[in-house]
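Whiteboard transcription, Tuesday session. T.W. wrote the structure tokens on the left side:
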């Protein structure tokens, strides 16, 4: 992951500031995987309390960013039209 994307995601998850990650940054995040993303949040932010709000807030924002990125990169398929 590039330093710029990592910082963008860090600010969004830990500090609750900045815009949502770009499609390129989301692609990089999805490529590293959810276990890596979760481990980074746990080790880098949760253990040293490097975030705003509660631990629950941090974990919620982490999951929100992950889900937004996955949906950005792999949008859910539309349901087939049964009444066409």
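and on the right, the sequence the group agreed on:
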């Amino acid at each position: 992951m590039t330093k710029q994307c990592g910082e963008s995601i860090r600010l969004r998850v830990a500090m609750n500031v900045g815009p949502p990650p770009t499609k390129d940054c989301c692609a990089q995040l999805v490529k590293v995987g959810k276990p890596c993303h979760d481990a980074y949040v746990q080790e880098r932010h949760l253990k040293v309390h490097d975030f705003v709000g509660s631990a629950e807030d941090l974990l919620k924002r982490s999951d929100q960013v992950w889900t937004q990125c996955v949906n950005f990169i792999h949008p859910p398929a539309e349901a087939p039209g049964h009444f066409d």
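Someone added at the bottom: The mean pLDDT is 90.
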